[in-house]
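User: I've been trying to design a sequence by hand for this structure and keep getting stuck. Would you show me what you'd pick, starting by listing the structure so we're on the same page?

Assistant: Good idea, let's start from the same input. This is the structure you sent:
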């Protein structure tokens, strides 16, 4: 948790002095020996991080690189925060103050954010979680330029990301579709937002053929969860809708995944976890924006009754789909949610999903593959939000011609294109079920990190939460 602190006098916390210019290093805070040491490290050895070990605490001097600007500058601060956090944990330190020496609120907040996000651990199944737990538990900000409100917003954004990571890291043995729906219900209760869980009967009644087809091989029923935050006086007349892929495990179905391709497929519900966490955060922050998360969920398995290549199914909106590969299941469950979204007369629908290996192959873990239809302005705003929080989106072409690749001989469309442009044909499949302004986000690349990736951690990164929360927050600024 990040908190504001007014006075440093009398505290014995470890301190991070954050500054760009060594000349600004305040006299009196360091002894002359310490000052000489810091200056030597900085000027002679070009070190940006200098650690002073006092007997009861650490004093860390962190220099911001002068020549970096904009988003990268803040990202460097987050990365530095993560590094310092690890150091503090090594020293079993519990509290730290980030001291804003030069009046740089954005940099200070970014450093604190990196420290908090980097401090995340998933210890649910460790034998001795207490022993393994990081000691750091409070980050204080000492700055005349950071408001309490900004700190609250940052804490909410961080909490949303952490909640998302927790959901995604949970293995499928504990995270069935029903459990995911239950967790969303709990989140809604915590923040006073509405949650409705539609069960298999309701899903059947609504003729959600895509979700039901993917669920056919499963032992567990599907769910479709609606998580709504409607504040008293929202800035938007029509709601924003966020649709998240909730495949709690993707074996591929009868087109079974091979080798190690299946290892981490518990993260195939990350889209659903993101949209749940974003609505949770929006409600917790009291954002005056009407936003609804839709989370269709099931596992995708081979089973006696499993949906089979060649099958033709009828979707919620009546479209017929030829299934040629049962591993292209995400688009089937999302498509039903997208046509259901129409009932809300939305101003914009954004879907977020670990949809295609092709997206990951194209740009790796460094960004989110994005496509847009009828949403120029909103897309530009989302892009700006992405730069700000460093969850960057990159636009792929979405030309009509790609739509030709999913036309079917026996049904209206088929669920795979061909070897080429796999991320785009998946997007085109989804677009078929929309007529409103629409943005598609494919997070297959950045969703997961095999080993610790700075403040994004190891395992689930929670990518998408900070992006969408910032986007919605931007909407509230008028
Ligand atoms: N969940 C996967 C996509 C995925 C793959 C995410 C690798 C992260 C890493 C999705 O359901 C899938 O299996 N897609 C297939 C589509 C193909 C059969 C057209 C893919 O990308 O291989
Ligand atoms: Zn799949
Ligand atoms: Zn999948």
């Amino acid at each position: 948790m990040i908190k504001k602190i007014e006075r440093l006098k009398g505290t014995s916390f470890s301190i991070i002095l954050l500054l760009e210019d060594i000349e600004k290093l305040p006299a009196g805070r360091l002894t002359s020996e310490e000052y000489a040491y810091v200056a030597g490290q900085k000027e002679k050895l070009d070190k940006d991080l200098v650690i002073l070990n006092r007997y009861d605490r650490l004093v860390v001097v962190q220099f911001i690189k002068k020549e970096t600007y904009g988003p990268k500058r803040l990202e460097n601060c987050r990365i530095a925060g993560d590094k310092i956090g690890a150091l503090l944990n090594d020293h079993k330190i519990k509290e730290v103050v980030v001291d804003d020496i030069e009046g740089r609120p954005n940099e200070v907040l970014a450093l604190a954010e990196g420290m908090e996000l980097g401090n995340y651990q998933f210890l649910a199944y460790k034998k001795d979680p207490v022993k393994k737990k990081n000691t750091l538990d409070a980050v204080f900000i000492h700055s005349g330029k950071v408001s309490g409100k900004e700190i609250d917003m940052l804490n909410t954004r961080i909490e949303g990301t952490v909640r998302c990571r927790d959901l995604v890291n949970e293995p499928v043995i504990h995270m069935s579709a029903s459990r995911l729906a239950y967790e969303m219900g709990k989140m809604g209760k915590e923040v006073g937002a509405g949650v409705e869980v539609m069960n298999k009967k309701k899903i059947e009644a609504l003729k959600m053929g895509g979700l039901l087809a993917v669920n056919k091989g499963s032992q567990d029923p599907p769910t479709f969860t609606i998580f709504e935050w409607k504040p008293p006086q929202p800035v938007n007349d029509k709601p924003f809708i966020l649709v998240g892929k909730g495949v709690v495990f993707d074996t591929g179905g009868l087109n079974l995944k091979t080798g190690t391709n299946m290892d981490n497929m518990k993260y195939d519900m990350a889209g659903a976890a993101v949209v749940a966490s974003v609505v949770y955060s929006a409600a917790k922050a009291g954002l005056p924006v009407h936003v609804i998360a839709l989370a269709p969920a099931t596992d995708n398995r081979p089973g006696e009754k499993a949906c089979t290549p060649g099958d033709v199914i009828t979707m919620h909106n009546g479209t017929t789909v030829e299934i040629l590969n049962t591993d292209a299941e995400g688009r089937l469950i999302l498509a039903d949610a997208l046509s259901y979204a129409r009932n809300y007369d939305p101003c914009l629908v954004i879907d977020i999903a670990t949809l295609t290996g092709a997206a990951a192959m194209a740009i790796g873990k460094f960004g989110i593959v994005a496509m847009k239809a009828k949403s120029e302005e909103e897309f530009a705003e989302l892009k700006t939000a992405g730069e700000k929080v460093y969850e960057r989106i990159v636009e792929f072409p979405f030309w009509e011609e790609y739509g030709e690749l999913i036309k079917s001989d026996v049904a209206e469309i088929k669920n795979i294109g061909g070897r080429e442009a796999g991320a785009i044909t998946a997007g085109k499949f989804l677009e078929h079920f929309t007529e409103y302004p629409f943005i598609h986000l494919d997070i297959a690349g950045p969703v997961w990190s095999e080993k610790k990736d700075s403040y994004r951690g190891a395992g689930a990164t929670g990518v998408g939460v900070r992006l969408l929360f910032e986007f919605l927050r931007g909407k509230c600024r008028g």
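That's my pick for every position. To get oriented when you compare it with your attempt: The chain is about 35% helix and 20% strand. The pocket of zinc ion (ligand 3) is lined by residues 247, 250, 268, 329-330 (CB under 6 Å).
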